[in-house]
Design a protein that fits this description.
By secondary structure, the protein is an alpha+beta fold. The protein contains 9 helices and 19 strands. Belongs to the membrane fusion protein (MFP) (TC 8.A.1) family.
Length: 444
């Protein structure tokens, strides 16, 4: 029997380096068996996971997770919120009631409470000017003096005529008394008595005319001194000393205006006036009869607010057919003379008071025709849409008449990112911080 080691040694070196063919086939079969085993393990894990069975070991779990990753994860919805802290956040304000003063802003002009155009009532030459232009004058103060010489002479002549009439009347009265006594003694005729009585009546009439002439002459003499009929401020003088004036002239010598208080005339449309009267009637006042005393504030031409508060005291009785407006008049104290006649102002009239008004920032309201809507966060964070009944706009807020209750949370920030039915997280927003932000249009 030959030695195996010798047979091996006798094989060439090239043959020894190559693995035997049978062993190569066995290696490929082992690799194929390992792959089939891995597939079977994967199927087993999938079956166990579907049935809620036993937990796979660490090695199998790693293989399962590796095979499940990839396309399945990429297909997940991008907007799906995570269970913990993934809700959308919105800023809200809490609806609260407050006392609201409803006001109406109107354009107006300042007018003097009283205006007196000073004109001469007698003719003559201006002898003196007794006031300073632009100064305050009192009622009864002499402003101009017209040469009174002719009027003094006329008064003296009238007084003399009156004295003559008095003497004639006295003589006629004595004659009538004498004729009456003679008639009783049957010493004269009835005709003479009647003539004496007629003469007495004529004398009395002449005396009355003479006395009236005296009064006229005295009045003309007084009118030679031109006085102011009211307290106020004198305007520029149109004449100087030496000017000839007449009672029939149309040009005023000067104008005196009462500037404390002053009037402010504003124009309001007839439609707004009807609403103003209804609001005044709610306070038990009748604006048409001048009973309403609504407070009025003024904004001057330079934007400043006048420090004094006026009162509405008059409503026009006719509508201007050209503008469709009605004139309202307010009275303002003007101790410093800040308000001047003809000045343009903006009048803010207080029309009504709502003790429990609910106001929301305009950013929270979406207007839809005459009404609107808002997004409200209910208990649990659910967003709902509310239909609102709206009133007037007050500065940067809007009056809500119905649709939101006090204490509810209304969305003012982030409303475009959420929809009704979603659950959101909220954070409070300071209503003051909302002021000045742009109002978003469109529907919520």
């Amino acid at each position: 029997m030959s030695d195996p080691s010798l047979s091996l040694l006798s094989v060439p070196s090239a043959s020894r380096d190559r693995p035997p063919p049978v062993r190569r086939a066995e290696g490929r079969g082992a690799a194929r068996s390992a792959g089939l085993l891995a597939l079977a393990a994967t199927a087993l894990l999938a079956a166990c996971g579907a049935d809620g069975g036993t937990t796979p070991g660490p090695g199998l779990a790693g293989a399962s997770s590796a095979s499940a990753a990839g396309p399945a994860q990429a297909a997940a919805p991008a907007g799906t919120a995570s269970p913990a802290g993934g809700r959308k956040g919105v800023g809200v304000v809490t609806a609260r009631t407050e006392s609201l003063q409803l006001t109406t802003e109107l354009n107006g002009r300042v007018a003097a409470a009283e205006v007196a155009e000073i004109r001469p009532q007698v003719a003559g030459v201006i002898q003196a000017v007794r006031f300073a232009e632009g100064a305050r004058v009192r009622a009864g103060q002499v402003l101009y003096e017209i040469d009174p010489a002719s009027y003094r002479a006329a008064l003296a002549s009238a007084q003399a005529a009156a004295q003559r009439a008095e003497a004639a009347t006295e003589a006629a009265k004595l004659n009538a008394q004498r004729q009456a006594d003679l008639f009783k003694a049957e010493a004269t005729s009835a005709q003479l008595l009647q003539d004496a009585r007629i003469t007495l009546r004529q004398a009395e009439a002449d005396l009355a005319a003479a006395r009236a002439a005296v009064d006229t002459a005295r009045l003309n003499l007084q009118r030679a001194s031109v006085v102011s009929p009211i307290d106020g401020v004198a305007d520029l003088s149109t004449v100087r000393v030496g000017a000839l004036v007449s009672a029939a002239q149309t040009t005023a010598l000067t104008t005196v205006r009462q500037l404390d208080p002053v009037l402010v005339d504003v124009s309001q449309s007839a439609t707004e006036l009807l609403q103003l009267r209804r609001e005044a009637a709610g306070r038990g006042q009748d604006l048409a009869r001048g009973e309403a005393r609504a407070p009025v504030r003024l904004q001057l031409e330079d934007g400043t607010v006048y420090g004094q508060t006026g009162q509405l005291g008059f409503s026009g009785v006719a509508v201007n057919t050209t503008t469709g407006g009605v004139t309202l008049r307010a009275r303002f104290p003007n101790p410093q003379g800040v308000l001047m006649p003809g000045m343009y102002v903006r009048a803010r009239v207080q029309t009504a008071e709502i003790p429990d008004a609910l106001l929301l920032p305009q950013q929270a309201v979406r207007r839809q025709g005459a009404g609107g809507s808002a997004l409200v966060v209910e208990a649990g964070g659910t967003v709902v849409r509310r239909t609102l009944q709206l009133g007037r706009v007050v500065d940067d807020r809007v009056l809500v008449l119905a649709g939101v209750q006090p204490g509810e949370q209304v969305i003012v920030e982030g409303s475009q990112k959420v929809k009704p039915g979603e659950v959101v997280q909220v954070w409070p927003v300071d209503p003051v911080a909302v002021k000045g932000r742009p109002v978003l249009g469109g529907g919520a």
